Amino acid sequence: MKYALVTGGSRGLGRAVCRKLAAQGWPVIINYRSNAEAAEETQRAILDAGGVAELLPFDVSDPAATEKAMEQWSESHPDDYIAVLVNNAGIRRDNLMIFMQDEEWRKVLDTTLNGFFFITRRLLKNMLSQRWGRIVNMASLSGIKGLPGQTNYSAAKAALIGATKALAQEVAPRKVTVNAIAPGFIETDMTKDLDQSELKKLVPMGRFGKAEEVAAAVAFLVSEDAAYITGEVISINGGLYT
Ligand code: NAP
Question: Is 164 in the pocket of ligand 1 (CB under 6 A)?
């Protein structure tokens, strides 16, 4: 059986992606770091809707923890492989660069960029040998245009976009596609400290996006209809490009 793994699948965009992929028939693996309650809520919603969902907590920025979790999953699923990987786990630690602490820089890069590297390298082997795979990386508008106060986050997301384009070319011959999504302002826990009433004035559509509007694009990229799309970055931002 082919599974879909969504990192940071317990809340926000990841939760919407898990629900959408499960509704399309994918058995889903919900990864998260620490908030088990949110992850269980996501799992329950999928099971209640008749889908298949498993929990797999590990810190994506920790290579040993990632390896251990994947080894355990493979042992308990000898006949299955993870064909879809959505690299969605991410954090913000905003600060002006002049005040930015080493830890704020490192944590953001470790989660978004190193997290992408550890789990993707691990899962590529099976995708390549099975000659089918889909990788979707959750980048950001911040990684395309850069946002002040987010040098760490913009750097991590821009690097993720570069890695998406490079890896897409490496694995295309084996029918593995690698794409990125660049959301603008989407309503989740990550943006709840932002002044939505002010910031939405910057958005041509006059509102923040919904997690489901991002999940729909992920589902398309994962589908057979998107087989010839790779190395692409899809912006979902209500018209807010520059
Ligand atoms: P969120 O609501 O804060 O959820 C973050 C998710 O990532 C949670 O499931 C969290 O798990 C998980 N996570 C964080 N660090 C992790 C780690 N080290 N290992 C494993 N899981 C980890 O964020 P969101 O708004 O849904 O954002 C999802 C992705 O979209 C992020 O990559 C973000 O940068 C990107 N994005 C968001 C927006 C936006 O406007 N919301 C815009 C552009 C891009 P726990 O609950 O266990 O911590």
Answer: no
